Amino acid sequence: MKKILNPAYLMLLVISFGCAQKQNNTPVKVVKSEAEWKSELSEESYRILRKAETERAFTGKYDKHFEEGVYRCAGCNQELFMSENKYDSKCGWPAFDNAVKGSLKFDVDYKIGIPRTEVLCSNCGGHLGHVFNDGPKETTGLRHCINSAALEFEPSKNE
Length: 159
Ligand code: FE
Prior knowledge:
159 residues; Metal Binding Protein, Guanine Nucleotide Exchange Factor, Chain A; 3-stranded antiparallel beta sheet; 3 helices; 19% helix; disordered N terminus; binds fe (iii) ion
């Protein structure tokens, strides 16, 4: 009984449940060969979008970027996040409390030993980052922690 009440164990259960809830196996629309992705993307964007790597914290071009506009997928140009959903989480990567409806897919990632919810572009399947439950409580409570190199920013035309 003691083992079951261990907070770390409970947290794991909650995360696993959350991941299972969000998993989406809908096939992506944009399908390209690795050679095509490699030739079209920058080295950094390829590493992240197609190889699920992570840019170094506090180095991405959109970490401290707070202009008005839309963040699109650097792989396929799909709209992913609006600037009004971006906030300064101080985690070292761009953080968003919400995404454009239907723009994301989710998967479970065990890379660091514990399950995390991986965030992917629903249109091309590119790896974007992860989503955590420590976002702003006054809105969604979610922190979509996204690599800058997976994004392309388009400024709002009204500026
Ligand atoms: Fe995409």
